[in-house]
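Supplementary Methods S3. Input chains for the assembly prediction are listed below.
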Amino acid sequence: MVLALERAAAPDADHSPIGRWIAPWRVDGTVLPPHQFAVAKGLVVLLWFFGEMAKFRGPFVALLPPLEWLPAGPTVWALRGLIVAGSILVLGGRAPRLGSGLVAAGLFGAITANALVYRNSLFFVAAVLLLIATHVGPVSTWLLRVQFSVMYAGAALNKLLIADWRDGTYFEHWQTVVLDNGWWTSLDGALPGPGLALVAGWTVIVTEFALAAMLMVRRTVWPALAIALVFHTIPVLTDGLTFGIFYSALVLAFFVFLEPDEAEHSWSPIRWAHDPRLPWFLTLTYVGLALTKDVLVAL
Amino acid sequence: MRPITIADRRRVRLAVGLLVLQILMLGVARFHDDRFMTWAPHDEWTDFEIEAAVDGVPLTDAEIEARYGYTAAGAEPRAGAHVRRAVRLAEERYHADDPAEVVVRTRVNGGEERTWSWP
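Predicted structure tokens for the full assembly:
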């Protein structure tokens, strides 16, 4: 097995620059903590795998109006160029902070220049990469925690303030009309009580608030990650919904919480999961399997 | 422990600025219908239809999509306000010389139909 699941070795002082280019599995030896480097690499690979750059469009009803003065074609190519340059730096192990920043800049540029390109999934990837790009020490890892907490707290708050979420209307419509899930209707009819939609909606709200709180406390990080994994995997299994890049990017990004320093403080029964090469290995495995499946289907 | 540099401080400020922006947008969302950078994915499902006419001549579906970026009929999984925003801003910014009369019909989470017109 290529990947020996042990704690990452100390940086190799005399590792040649060329070796780093041809050793894409390396995630140490830079200013970034190995976990964050691995997550940055994985996010870049996912961006390419999901073809996000192909969806960029020229400025249109921009979130930042001055961007609309820019010409469409050159703007799109400039944004793609930022991501290409950043990808080379990140995947090649050269200046991963700068590379992450360039990719984040390209993504932020794309979603602010064209409101129709904006998606929360892209914003999430851009935000995580920007926070990785601004890494200076333990405070930066803490800011990554805050990012996740803001995301979950914001999502929960937004839902809590919508009547259709509080009374189950959204979930009912989502399952029975949008997704047209027959199993939902059958299950709803079979279960006693206030209704499956009401329970599901409040479960989502409470879970997101809980995750926002738990991810800010080191001792509860591991349970929070387990809950979040189940929470986000349920719609994948029941409805096949990965929301584009979001599911894989989010699961990958969770690994920033498994740095050795974090592991010492968190209740973590699976020590080998803290190997920083694991998220990078999982990303490549996921992409490899998906591409292999596509090739086999095409054949 | 290495000393904190000016570049380090700038990086931290940038990171904090990103987080503050999101918290601010969460506050803005309480008073505004737009849902950008507020972590509001799939908070409401809006089915919409767009009808537009320039000088009394109805636009085709392809022309509507080219003009506003949205298909003439579809669904917006984030916020129905984004459809109205796209129509309003497209008319204000790009079509001041050839204004259209637009009607957007929306139905949020399967509820009652609402109509919004421009101008």
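Chain A touches chain B through 44 residues (CB under 8 Å). DSSP finds 14 helices and no strands in chain A.
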